[in-house]
Amino acid sequence: METKFYEFSQNNSGGSFDVDENVCHRVIIEAKNENEAIEKFTPMTDNQSGSCPCCGERWYISPSEIDLNYYAKNGYKASIYTHYKDYEARWLAMYGKFKRNEEPKLKKDMFEVFETQVFFESVEDYCQFMANTYGWTTPDIRIHYLNGSKLDIFKQGIDQQQ
Q1: Quick one: DSSP state of residue 63?
Q2: In terms of residue numbers, what domain contains 24?
Q3: Are residues 114 and 138 located together in one domain of the fold?
Q4: 3-class SS of residue 4
Q5: Which range, of 53-67, 85-99, 100-114, averages the lowest pLDDT?
């Protein structure tokens, strides 16, 4: 039986995130299909705070499928803005452990960034990248596996709030 991983993202509704034994900023559900993932996820949000008139709904109940084959082949852009004096060290601390085909370089888009593509070989790699990039809660991501086990993923690397 082939399973997939589905990502549910929490909105910072009302200026905070809800965190408990089941949810945090991002929740990943392993399931056979999207409907099964939604069925597993929905009861987890029963005791969560609701929406805010200015910020909107707390949870996006339309999950995104994590396409590991795509990320293993095409990668994901990993970048750090160069306004940090230690941007190279920050990049290495946050993304240096991920597989890449070339070393990061300075690139000019709208802003100057230090970047390259990184590749994920597992859902845990994908989640660690997302936690390092967008980590706002403790834990930052919680994976709910089909067998009932859970894995908490915490941001690693340099705190970008410095």
Answers
A1: P
A2: 1-68+121-162
A3: no
A4: strand
A5: 53-67
